[in-house]
Amino acid sequence: MKIDLVEVGPRDGLQSEGTLLPTAVKVELITRLIAAGIRRLEVTSFVNPKRVPQMADAEAVMAALPRNNGVSYIGLVLNRQGFDRALAAGCDEIGMAVIASDSFNRRNQGVSTEESLAAWLDIARAAHAAKVKPNVVVSAAFGCPFEGEIDPDHVLDIALRCARAEPIEIALADTIGVGVPTQVADLFGRLRRELPQMPLRAHFHNTRNTGIANAYAAIEAGVTALDGSVGGVGGCPFAPAATGNIPSEDLLYMLDRMGVETGVSLEAMIDTGRWLQEKIGRPIPGMLMKAGGFPRRTQRPT
Q1: Domain total of the chain
Q2: Beta strands of 21-154 (E only): which ranges?
């Protein structure tokens, strides 16, 4: 089995940090992740710098990244203006977020869910025309900090409407970390049955310590790509009490011990997490940075 590990640390990981990291540090983080074997990265977001000042240097980051290395650089966009910036900056792939909760969508993006859906359809058409790969994330798919439980039928309807624009994949995100494995298995299972040929990706936050369990459930349900953030840094700046994503190295440890192929070096990811912790200047959530790895078992002990 092969799973595509999508690194979101440079974007989702850093967007909530109180300390603004210099562009050169962000670029070094990305190059370290590439050296570890990551081949798809969310490197930045093209959003209003007044609302997310940590991403104000999006164009500068893109301009400094190495090219022609088989790596796909993903830029997050929320509207057509953001897409135009991402296209001009040279993103290989754009990711668009549509939030299943209207209240959350208005706080995060300033428009309704329906308006974001319309923007996605326009952006996806423009991306295809420009030969840039579009992916879409249905966020708050397992719960909302403002509306509470989200009807799975509603999430499925949004995902199916997003699919009309022919994205390269559809992701479901547990933006505030409230989902549990049974929900994950049910929702991804339903989506897989409705869209049997569509690549599916999962984005989990570890707010309530269910992220790794949810990742396993997503794999069992047919997901072929999982998001992680090195060191477990990150969280949505517009969600109350949001904490970090799944640490990439913790997720990688599980996958590696399960015999799942990712092409990513666990040791290099642990080293990168420790390096990032020094740059941020405070402890970050990753467990493997503290405990270290463990040899992969090749045979049973006698």
Answers
A1: 1
A2: 40-46, 72-77, 93-99, 133-139
Please tell me whether the overall predicted TM-score, pTM, comes out greater than 0.90 for this model: yes
Q: State phi, psi for 36 to the nearest 5 degrees.
A: -75, -15
**pLDDT(142) > 90:** yes
Question: What's the domain range around 50?
Answer: 4-291
Contact 269, 248 (CB under 8 A): yes
Flag whether 300 is in a domain.
no
Tell me what pLDDT residue 109 has. Answer: 94
Please report the pLDDT score of residue 236 as a whole number.
66
Instruction: Compute the half-sphere exposure of residue 257: CA atoms within 13 Å on the CB side of its CA.
Output: 10
236 is catalytic: yes
Which residue in the list 91, 144, 162, 236 is annotated as catalytic? 236
Domain of 22: which CATH number? 3.20.20.70
Q: HEC states along 3-57?
A: CEEEECHHHHHCCCCCCCCCHHHHHHHHHHHHHHCCCEEEEEEECCCCCCHHHCC
